[in-house]
Specification:
- By secondary structure, the protein is mostly helical.
- It has a single domain, classed as hpI Integrase, Chain A.
- It contains 10 helices and 2 strands, in the order ααααββαααααα.
- α3 packs antiparallel against α5 and α7 runs antiparallel to α8.
- It starts with a helix and ends with a helix.
């Protein structure tokens, strides 16, 4: 009887872990969204109960490449200066990312800046340096797992298959990798903005482009 109960408990734990991995898209490449798909998501959340917050959540993923944990841990002090005005960069602390090496500085995209200003105006006196940017009705903020579930639910509601909380991050990294040389940078800059410990990890995130491969052959 004891062995049977232990076996059932272990099987239950495995099922819960499998469900968690599915929700956050762990173990498989997240879908890279097209512009029209991102706009569809933004249009959808604009009609939510908390449209300003939800727009910021989406854009932190797609315009800053933040992980679910980083979205959950982001505080107003990381996006504002000492006078409380919106900064021009996101200053992500190590503790809000992946420990000793995940912290980084990310230039603030204009679209994200506008969304943050709108959210800041709506929140008013509730905006404090130590408080999370992404708030919850029932708690001070979201947990990383709650952020992952939030994205999973929104994608399911609009009928986007294969997308997860990592889709925005992968879309962001792919986009800046394609444009970085035009800006005078290199993949090393992409690696730093992504918060990766190695270039090989960054390269795994970048989605290839068949048309670009054909075009570059014609240039040599």
């Amino acid at each position: 009887m004891t062995i049977s109960r232990s076996h059932n408990k272990n099987r239950h734990s495995i099922n819960i872990e499998a469900q968690r991995r599915e929700l956050i898209g762990e173990g498989k490449q997240a879908k890279v969204l097209r512009k029209a798909e991102l706009q569809r998501l933004l249009n959808y959340v604009s009609h939510s109960r908390h449209p300003e917050r939800d727009r910021v959540m989406v854009l932190l993923s797609f315009r800053a490449g933040l992980r679910a944990k980083e979205i959950a841990q982001l505080t107003w002090s990381m996006v504002t200066n000492t006078t409380g005005e919106l900064a021009d960069v996101i200053s992500l602390h190590n503790k809000a990312s992946k420990g000793r090496a995940g912290g980084r500085t990310i230039p603030l995209h204009r679209e994200l800046a506008d969304a943050l200003l709108a959210l800041k105006a709506v929140r008013g006196e509730r905006v404090r340096p130590h408080r999370p940017v992404i708030y919850s009705e029932r708690a001070p903020g979201y947990s990383p797992n709650a952020v992952a579930i939030w994205f999973h639910t929104r994608y399911r509601e609009i009928g986007l298959e294969g997308a997860s909380s990592h889709s925005g991050r992968r879309t962001f990294i792919t986009a800046i990798a394609k444009k970085i040389t035009e800006a005078g940078g290199s993949l090393r800059d992409v690696q730093e903005m992504a918060g990766h410990s190695s270039l090989s990890m960054t390269q795994r995130y970048i989605q290839g482009d068949s048309a670009a491969k054909r075009n570059v052959i014609g240039l040599i």
